[in-house]
């Protein structure tokens, strides 16, 4: 059975369809996953693709059709509709599984409940082209499968217990190792991922735990005191801690962490479990965070305004900031700093928004601030666009003047809310459709969407901008020599470097195999030249891909929108200048094993 091809197939799509055709659904083990050999009846496999934000099935075995019927899904068509229902949980899970498998190149799986049945979905990335991503899919009805090693009842009971948690890890204190047993949310990493326990605890804390809770997290996972603390609990025989942890959107929410002894083969073993906190408990925790006896400062026991303000800022999921009468930042909460990838307030204080470069239309914000500061105007949920981590994000801004005791305006205070997903959902679009699944930056569609925004801003306000066309030198030779997996890692590393160094003020995307595009608002050719030099230096700073040392270079071509008449001419001019740069410098990309 061959994947159906649309019309006259372009050369650029051939490798994509060839990769799909190589998957033999009748083979004994296309997933290369041991448990798949143990199934009672034929392999329940299918090949599907995500094309322009919509899922469709290309192939499916009779075993797959038979299996989904046991879950209450009558046909492949109905399964396809379920995958495309953006309001369904299965849609969100498939999106995460596909993204994870694309980035890691490994099988991603998750357990779920459907119509009273416990089931498992496994996804393995196959290939992608400009508009589509193909993947291999297997669905298993765990409630009916008797071929697994454990008994049906015990397996179901264990999976039910696991499903109560976000993650479950097995900590071996004897060997200082950690093994992930269960992970229900694809956007989260394991608490501990192997290696020295203290080191991975520190790394996880820095990436995922609220700054005010990091010390508490480290103390809780102190391997030298865990057993002693559990013994001190007496009859309870386990320890727990409530900690604020990042969710999939980067917001902090309360999670309950639990560690319990798990003796096995005379080893000192512990189970670490993490799960959500219900709404009532969350409210109680917020209240406790804001009203701590050790922060009471007034002699009569009342809570000072300063303490209330500090706790409000720490708990808020809004990005709050405040400025002086000269429109310069004088402070912001952690949410605002994290949203804009700022490590501390020092990167913000004393600067105006136009100096930071993240506003697509800073002139509009300047006028807005001036009206607040001079006329006392209040702004409520005014929509706009910001550059965040190399992507354009839709935000709603609110701000109002700050008055002193005599009624004089001495500054302004505002907050932002990210409404990107709300905006795209209202248009029936998926965020995944704008994202390059390999690198996590914008794909061609996302870039074209951003380019249109920049063009509209130029036509309205003559706000000039530059496009930088970037090509990794000799990538094809490197890919052929070292294999696709290392090639993908190189591309991911280039994308990360560009976004990390330039993503605060530039839109960053990938439009082809080894081709990247950046957009930035500039004043003149001098600014464009500076960006070109910075891109080259950023790529040249990459010296290691996995276990291979490397020297990487890139060819860069830039063009200003004011030099051309439309976006097509802009793209062609930047591409042409990139080709001239490539032929002119004769750079080489050299890779060798350490």
Automatic annotation (TrEMBL):
It holds the Pfam family GGDEF. It comes from Ligilactobacillus agilis DSM 20509. This is GGDEF domain-containing protein. SMART domains: GGDEF (SM00267). Transmembrane segments: none annotated. Residues 463-594 form the GGDEF domain. Residues 374-431 form the PAC domain.
